[in-house]
Amino acid sequence: MRVIMFDRQSIFIHGAIHSLQKLIPEINMTGTGQAEDLWAQVSASPSAIVLIDGNLIQNEETALLEALMHRFPAIRVVMVLAKKEARWVEQLRQRNVMAIIPRNASPERFSAVLDSVSRGMVCFPGEWIKQPSSPEALLALSERQREVLKLLAAGESNKEIGRNLNISAATVKAHLEALFRRLDVKNRTQAAMFYTRAMA
């Protein structure tokens, strides 16, 4: 598991690396507080999980975050936030951030979130989300669309969903497009989050 940490405090980076290496023996984790170094590390590992200190991004009005995600679409971004702000969390959700971890979370929680994100899952603290989704909204979907959504939320690719349901990847794509419209979400990440919140 390749993890890059971008944080304003080198002591926080060292502490996180030390703790997580004990919990995830196979982790390859490095950290930096410099944007230039972050770019260099992500260039070398364009599909890494990138843990980003929310304060560093917020001060730059998400420009760095958007540039990173545009240039390296395979990276998985996890934001580390010191405080709960529903409006800010919603902005991150809309920018395809895969997870949020409170800065004061335990090493075990960091480890669990990294494991989930490495499997393609989305992890947002339920209490930090602005509007909980209504489970009734799922009733607007067909039974097959609900099956597709459930597998999507479990981190499966279109090909894997197709194999599980014995349908083609093109049919999976058509189901996803239809359910995105019905749930009023823009992408896989938002659809997975919708499902996770609705089932909570």
UniProtKB/TrEMBL annotation:
Pfam families (UniProt xref): GerE
Name of the protein in its database record: Response regulator transcription factor
InterPro entries, alphabetized: CheY-like_superfamily (IPR011006), EvgA-like (IPR051015), Sig_transdc_resp-reg_C-effctor (IPR016032), Sig_transdc_resp-reg_receiver (IPR001789), Tscrpt_reg_LuxR_C (IPR000792), WH-like_DNA-bd_sf (IPR036388)
Keyword ATP-binding: no
Xref: PROSITE patterns: HTH_LUXR_1, HTH_LUXR_2, RESPONSE_REGULATORY
Keywords: DNA-binding, Phosphoprotein
CDD domains: LuxR_C_like (cd06170)
Taxonomic superkingdom: Bacteria
HTH luxR-type domain mapped to chain residues: 134-200
Domain Response regulatory intervals: 2-118
Positions of modified residues (4-aspartylphosphate): 53
Organism expressing this protein natively: Enterobacter chinensis
Keyword Acetylation: no
